[in-house]
């Protein structure tokens, strides 16, 4: 995907990773950007899901029980990226979906840089409807 690494400026790739919260809660399939540069490997939760992840952590509180949470049940984008990843047998469908997601993520970054809350909300909704 297009966004550059905030540390070194190289290309990043979106992958699904597990995030551990307060050493007790494992949150699976969180979309993160990973720098493609081996020497850097900077990892960052992607902006579109930051709010969902923050809400989830706030709901868990400071002293959460040991548990595992599937982020794809919380975030539509995570769910969608999982579906794309599973589209192995049909490369054409997968590429078309990836391209669409890329476009919307780019627009989201633009809306975010403009501080346009309504547009950000609209794009978030559109991101959730790609698979339908
Ligand atoms: Zn980097």
Q: How is this structure best described in words?
A:
The protein has helices at 47-60, 76-86, 91-114, 117-129; strands at 12-21, 25-35, 43-45, 67-70. It has 4 helices and 4 strands. A hairpin with a 3-residue loop joins strand 1 and strand 2 (25-35). The longest helix is centred in the last third of the chain and has 24 residues, at 91-114. Helix 3 (91-114) packs antiparallel against helix 4. Strands 1, 2, 3 and 4 form a 4-stranded mixed sheet that branches. Helix content is 47%, strand content 21%. It has one domain (12-129). The chain is α+β, with helices and mostly antiparallel strands and 132 residues long. The mean pLDDT is 87. Bound molecules: zinc ion. Zinc ion binds next to loops. This is YgiT-type zinc finger protein. It comes from Brevibacillus composti.
Question: Gist?
Answer:
This protein is an alpha+beta fold and 132 residues long. The chain contains four helices and four strands; from the N terminus they run E-E-E-H-E-H-H-H. The two termini are 22 Å apart.
Key descriptive features of the protein:
132 residues, alpha+beta, 4-stranded mixed β-sheet, 4 helices, 47% helix, 21% strand, binds zinc ion, YgiT-type zinc finger protein
The domain count comes to: 1
N-to-C CA distance: 22 Å
Multimeric state of these chains?
Answer: single chain
User: How many strand units?
Assistant: 4
Q: What fraction of the residues are assigned to beta strands by DSSP?
A: 15-25%
- What is the ordering of alpha helices and beta strands? EEEHEHHH
Bound small molecules, which ones?
zinc ion
């Amino acid at each position: 995907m297009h966004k550059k690494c905030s540390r070194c400026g190289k290309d990043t790739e979106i992958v699904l990773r597990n995030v551990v919260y307060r050493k007790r809660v494992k949150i699976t399939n969180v979309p993160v950007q990973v720098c493609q540069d081996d020497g850097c490997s900077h990892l960052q939760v992607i902006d579109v899901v930051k709010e969902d992840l923050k809400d989830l952590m706030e709901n868990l509180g400071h002293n959460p029980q040991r548990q595992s949470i599937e982020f794809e049940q919380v975030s539509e984008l995570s769910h969608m990226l999982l579906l794309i990843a599973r589209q192995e047998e049909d490369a054409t469908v997968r590429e078309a979906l990836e391209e669409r997601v890329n476009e919307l993520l780019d627009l989201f970054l633009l809306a975010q840089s403009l501080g346009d809350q309504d547009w950000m909300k609209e794009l978030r909704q559109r991101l959730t409807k790609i698979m339908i």
